[in-house]
Write a structure and sequence with these properties.
The complex is a heterodimer. By secondary structure, chain A is α+β, with helices and mostly antiparallel strands. Chain A is built from 17 helices and 7 strands. Chain A has helices at 7-19, 21-27, 32-45, 50-67, 71-90, 100-141, 156-165, 168-179, 181-201, 203-210, 236-271, 276-308, 310-328, 334-361, 370-379, 397-418, 454-462; strands at residues 222-226, 229-233, 385-390, 423-430, 433-440, 467-471, 478-485. In chain A, the strands form 2 sheets. A 5-stranded mixed β-sheet of chain A has the order 3-4-5-7-6. In chain A, strand 3 (385-390), helix 16 and strand 4 (423-430) form a beta-alpha-beta unit. In chain A, helix 12 (276-308) runs antiparallel to helix 14 (334-361) and helix 16 runs antiparallel to helix 17. Chain A starts with 6 loop residues before the first helix and ends with a strand. In chain B, helix 8 (159-170) crosses helix 10 (185-199). Chain B has a 6-stranded parallel β-sheet, sandwiched between helices. Chain B is globular and about 50 Å long. Helices cover 54% and strands 14% of the residues of chain B. Chain B has helices spanning 16-28, 40-50, 68-79, 94-101, 119-130, 138-147, 151-155, 159-170, 174-181, 185-199, 207-219, and strands at 8-12, 32-37, 54-58, 84-89, 108-112, 134-136. By secondary structure, chain B is α/β, with parallel strands linked by helices. Chain B folds into 2 domains: 8-136, Response regulator (Rossmann fold, 3-Layer(aba) Sandwich), CATH 3.40.50; 141-219, Winged helix-like DNA-binding domain superfamily/Winged helix DNA-binding domain (Arc Repressor Mutant, subunit A), CATH 1.10.10.10. Chain B has 11 helices and 6 strands. The chains are: A alpha+beta, B alpha/beta. Chain A binds chain B through residues 304, 307-308, 311-313, 315-316, 318-323, 325-326, 344, 347-348, 351-352, 355, 358-359, 363-365, 367-368, 372, 375-376, 378-382, 384-385, and chain B through 14-15, 17-18, 21-22, 24-25, 28, 60, 65-67, 90-91, 93-95, 113-114, 116-120, 143-144, 146-147, 149, 151.
Chain lengths: 488, 220
């Protein structure tokens, strides 16, 4: 069995090297013979487990998929070449030498164009290919890797290009496609081991069918592929060398496939996933939006509870006291009358307090939209206020609440500090942003650094990535612009 | 409207405690509560069934707790013009007032819930609305006055005239204004005439037309 020589180290060397981790742990207390037997059993069974087959299949599919990336340089080189050929073809041969610079320019231009096109397409194409890789890993290896965050949507061609060029996940996917090339080679190797190994196993079975030639006839030897070169088999006993090589390759293939698949998954997790920082930011944004919405909902519920609970009870008490007061009449004990009067007045005052408190928590008018709420706000202002509102799409409740309280605070500021005669409140939606502008014709000089509630407002606006801009030169006028996203 | 008239009333209010208190108050004053319901749908049905003189309804009711009472009221004003509609609310929203009045101040009222505590005044407002008059909360009127663009016109009034104007806007008759300000009817008439001249409003005998003129002046 001289021919099996080169195969031996493969069969003996690889399985322990790869497979020691798990079996060694469970077999430690056992005698070494038992552990070795278990290991051998594992090694022999490995090619026939469903997992090994799936890993092999994964490698086999990943090979052409991984090689797709080579299409890019071909495209870059091919485009200018095509352009050149076309320009050459169009130019009559007699004028070919004066036309030469044109051809060079065409090549350069074509290459430049191809590079640019590649630059602006690569992240998107890589994202698409990355998704295919991830799906394959999920389907065959059961490894679900979360996809990256969707690409930002830009407005117009410029926005599209800039979104593509700055698409981090897209570029990371492109990096995966490049970094994966060596792994693709390993996957190719695994696929080769399995396919050629299987082929080698068949040699002894078909040899007698085709090679039953009369003695003395010399035939070309048949090649059997192994990782260490081709075996040239000329005789029937020789086919058993191919069989042995095939068996060894079949035993080795699953381990190579497992290693290659593991390396591929490691790359996928690192480069095709959402990215740790991006994922963290997305998680934080989501939880912050939730917190903001939550607090808005909480305030709304609090107001409703007050409305349906304490306020209505107090109103009923005031009503009953009013009725009691009437029934007491003039003959009643003046002391009792006085007490009932005081209680009646107290209940009514408490109702006013409670109403103001509830309005500060969540104005009921906000339920029917920002324009209505702002109109009500304007109506109760000490200075004349003009409100213009054009909000076709209703923002999230939390955003409406923030916008409302900004307007309320700015209006109160104007009334307190600006000596203005007139305030205008404009609210509009511009390109997915809610813009609230409060202007007055007062004496200006508002400064968020000097308190006056403006810094608190700016903080509140920042909780939803909004912006607050103050233009208030000394002498006026003051204009405060608040920009808020439509969704928290 | 000093002579007590027994009115047939429908109450719509989702808070049981307040609804029952209100029913007792009205019954005490000699009115008949023909139905006391808890939501807008039941209110419309009750009015269709009983054809009452006046409806007392909360603005915020189930299921959405926003303005279903108001929407029902607007529907009632269209379909049952002879039924007075008195809305109660824990807040005064100018937009709501504008929607409720919508160019017609006859037989309509909009009061803060707590005004019920002043039983006599509330009863007076209810009777006014039932008789096709108007009852606007002082809060509504003060908001209208504050937001009015006729600051110069209003500045021309004396403080007493401004008080009278506010009471006119609330929908009170001359007699009601006289009672509220503890003056004689003749004095009120003089004030009213002076106000109408200063603001350039047409003199009008009917109270609700006068209210509308004043409101229109303040709101325009």
């Amino acid at each position: 069995m001289g021919t099996t020589g080169p195969v031996d180290p493969l069969a003996a060397g690889r399985p322990p090297g790869r497979g020691l981790g798990e079996p060694a742990r469970s077999a430690e207390p056992r005698p070494p013979g038992g552990s070795l037997a278990a290991l051998t059993r594992r090694a022999v069974r490995a090619p026939f487990t469903a997992r090994a087959l799936r890993e092999l299949l994964f490698c086999a599919i990943e090979v052409p998929l991984g090689l797709c990336v080579l299409a890019f340089p071909i495209a870059v080189a091919g485009l200018p070449l095509t352009v050149t050929l076309l320009t050459r073809g169009a130019t009559p041969p007699a004028q070919s030498s004066p036309a030469y610079p044109t051809g060079a320019i065409a090549i350069l231009g074509g290459a430049l164009f191809a590079l640019l096109a590649l630059f602006f397409l690569a992240p998107r194409i890589a994202r698409g290919l990355g998704a295919v890789h991830r799906r394959l890993a999920a389907r065959l290896l059961g490894e679900r890797i979360a996809g990256p965050l969707p690409i930002r949507r830009g407005h117009g061609v410029g926005g599209w290009l800039s979104a593509t060029a700055r698409d981090g996940p897209g570029w990371r996917a492109a990096a995966y496609l490049l970094a994966k090339l060596p792994v693709t080679v390993a996957e190719l190797y695994a696929a080769f081991l399995a396919a050629a190994g299987l082929a080698n196993l068949t040699y002894p079975f078909w040899w007698p069918l085709f090679r039953n030639h009369p003695p003395g006839v010399r035939l070309q030897p048949v090649a059997a592929l192994t990782p260490f070169g081709a075996l040239h088999i000329a005789t029937f006993p020789g086919t058993f060398a191919a069989l042995a090589a095939g068996a060894a390759m079949m035993l080795a293939a699953p381990w190579v496939a497992r290693g290659a698949a593991a390396a591929d998954l490691w790359l996928m997790r690192g480069l095709l996933g959402p990215g740790r920082l991006a994922q963290r930011v997305a998680d934080l944004e989501r939880s912050r939006a939730l917190a903001v919405e939550d607090s808005a909902a909480l305030l709304r519920r609090l107001e409703r509870d007050l409305h349906d609970g304490a306020q209505i009870r107090l109103a009923t008490i005031a009503m009953n006291l009013g009725m009691a007061r009437e029934k007491l009449g003039d003959e009643a004990d003046p002391a009792v009358r006085e007490l009932v009067d005081t209680a009646h007045r107290g209940a009514k005052d408490a109702l006013v307090d409670l109403r103001n408190l509830a309005r500060g928590i969540h104005p009921a008018a906000l339920d029917s939209g920002l324009p209505d709420a702002l109109a009500t706000l304007a109506a109760s202002s000490a200075i004349p206020v003009e409100v213009t509102a054009a909000v076709p799409e209703r923002p999230a409740p939390a955003i409406e609440t923030i916008a409302y309280f900004c307007a309320a605070e700015l209006l109160a500021n104007a009334a307190k500090h600006s000596h203005a005669n007139k305030v205008t409140i404009e609210v509009a939606e511009r390109g997915g942003t809610l813009v609230l502008r409060v202007s007055d014709d007062g004496r200006g000089g508002a400064d968020s650094a000097r308190g006056s509630g403006l810094s608190g407002l700016a903080q509140r606006v920042r909780t939803v990535d909004g912006r607050l801009e103050i233009a208030s030169p000394p002498g006026g006028p003051t204009q405060v612009t608040v920009q808020l996203p439509l969704r928290a | 409207m000093t002579e007590p008239r027994s009115l047939r009333v429908v109450i719509a209010e989702d808070a049981t405690l307040f609804r029952e208190g209100l029913a007792r108050l009205l019954t005490d004053r000699g009115h008949r509560v023909v139905a006391a319901v808890a939501d807008a749908g039941a209110l419309l049905a009750a009015v269709a069934e009983h054809d009452p003189d006046v409806v007392v309804a909360d603005i915020r009711m189930p299921p959405t707790h926003t303005d279903e009472g108001l929407r029902a009221a607007i529907e009632l004003r269209r379909d049952h013009p002879r039924t007075g509609v008195l809305m109660l609310s824990q807040y005064i929203e100018t937009k709501y007032a504008a929607r409720l009045l919508a160019g017609n101040a006859a037989g309509v009222g909009y009061l803060l819930k707590e005004r019920v505590a002043d039983v006599a005044e509330f009863a007076d407002a209810l009777a006014r609305v039932a008789d096709g008059g108007t009852a606007l909360d002082p809060e509504v009127v003060s908001q209208l006055v504050r937001a009015s663009r006729h600051a110069d016109g209003l500045a021309a009034l004396t403080p007493r005239e401004r008080d009278v104007l506010a009471l006119m806007a609330e929908g009170r008759s001359n007699a009601g204004i006289a009672t509220a300000l503890v003056v004689s009817g003749g004095v009120v008439e003089k004030h009213v005439a002076s106000i109408l001249i200063k603001l350039g409003l047409p003199p009008s005998e009917a109270d609700n037309r006068r209210v509308l003129a004043v409101l229109r002046y303040l709101g325009s």
